[in-house]
Design brief:
Elements lengths: L3 E5 L6 H14 L4 E5 L8 E3 L5 E3 L1 E2 L6 H10 L6 E4 L7 H14 L2 E6 L10 H9 L2 E4 L14 E6 L2 E3 L27 E6 L1 H6 L3 H9 L20
Parallel strand pairs: 1-7, 1-8, 2-5, 2-6, 6-7
Antiparallel strand pairs: 3-4, 9-10, 9-11
Helix pairs in contact: 3-4
Length: 236
Amino acid sequence: MAELVFFSGTMDCGKSTLALQMDHNHRARGRGGVRFSRNDRAGESRISSRLGLQTDAVEVLDSTDFWDEVMRRRTQGQRVDYLICDEAQFYSPAQVEQLAKVVDEIDVDVFAFGITADFRTRLFPGSQRLIELADRVQVLQVEALCWCGRRATHNARTVDGVMVTEGAQVVVGDVDMAGPAATAAADHIPVVGYETLCRRHYMRRVTAHGAALMAGQDQLLPFDVDACLWRGSGAF
């Protein structure tokens, strides 16, 4: 029987890598599928992994209807046995319900991959609906790491290296930056970045950049000090 499966985790835990591997495995067994993604780091209509793997995909728009997407392809004679849905946190709740309908009504497997919570630790609407409707929710076992070496559990947004907890839920940023190296360039345009943190350093708002600054100023690292009281944490 077909299933709706939601593979979730923080950034850097291998969601897109697994999506590409699953697509490869199913195609190797003669199954036909369609890859979908939205707001991928490599650009429109792509699924990309930080390991360097990437392939083409159908870009999900606000107007995308997954039921129509599958039925149109089947009407044209294309075999559709499964869907790979990357960056599923950006899908609307209505689109997630369409995916559930595809599973239940025409027996198509749906493998969705996405981040559960945003930089404010609030559920993305698409992820929330997937948790509510999925046959299975699997947390990926590859652990992303905080700068301190602990398991990362939260996604943090930074502006010029300082962690922020307010702003629009979806903002494109640099996921590979450890610090605001480009801050001084381009007329001081704020540099938006993302990194994964353990709960301790997320709550204290200490990013890799902030920890490096504190160490360079001969200040105690946040093992013995409330780093939220440090001005670089953004709490002031």
